[in-house]
Every structure is written in C-alpha cells, then in structure tokens.
Amino acid sequence: MHVSNVQVGTPFYMDPSTRATGRSSSASDVFSFGVIMWELFCGRPPYVPDNTGGVVKAPDFPSFPPGTPPIFVNLALQCLSIKPSERPSFTQCQEVLQGLQNHLLAQIAHCQNQQLQ
C-alpha cells in the first residue's frame, strides 16, 4: 500500500487539520466520509456557487433536514468534528451504520406485517 501526504482533494471535503498542516490520516478520511454522508442524505454537494464564479460552503451545511434518523445525524456530525481525536474510526462508522440498517429493516418488516393483518 502506498500512502502519500501530498495535499490533493476538493476543499469542502478536506479535513481542516489536513488543510492547515498538509498531513492526512485515517481521521482525515473519516472527516471526508462525514461530508459524503451529508451529501448523500441531502442529495446535493456541501457547496453552492457564489457571485464571483466560485463556490462557498452551503449555508445549511452541516445541518440535516427534519426526519433524518438521529443515529445518522450523530455519526455524521462526529465524523465532521474539528478535532481529529473526537472522530470515530471507520470500524465504528460501519458498526453504527449496520445497526441503523438493521433497525430500519426491522421497522419495514413490522410495517409490512401490520399491513398483512
């Protein structure tokens, strides 16, 4: 495996500490994952065009819309923590998301059973 600390990437997805120091880590990747979680749930990028032809942070980033599962919101916001030491590992992310998936599948099954009765 090759690991490089060359700074490349889309600024809105880049960990603030990576921008400041030029050093990336697994915590940097977790930050980017948090941005992607927001983008996937909201269906749009975390930036909007400005009046100069550039882009700026979306005014509602990182807020989630009402009805977003709290577990999902909490995980995404933990991933987006300014302090890398406060971010979860990818293993922890996977565990939380797997638990959320299991919970949602159980709710779907319950609703389907209710409709059959």
UniProtKB/TrEMBL annotation:
This is Kinase-like domain-containing protein. Transmembrane segments: none annotated. It comes from the Eukaryota. Residues 1-106 form the Protein kinase domain.
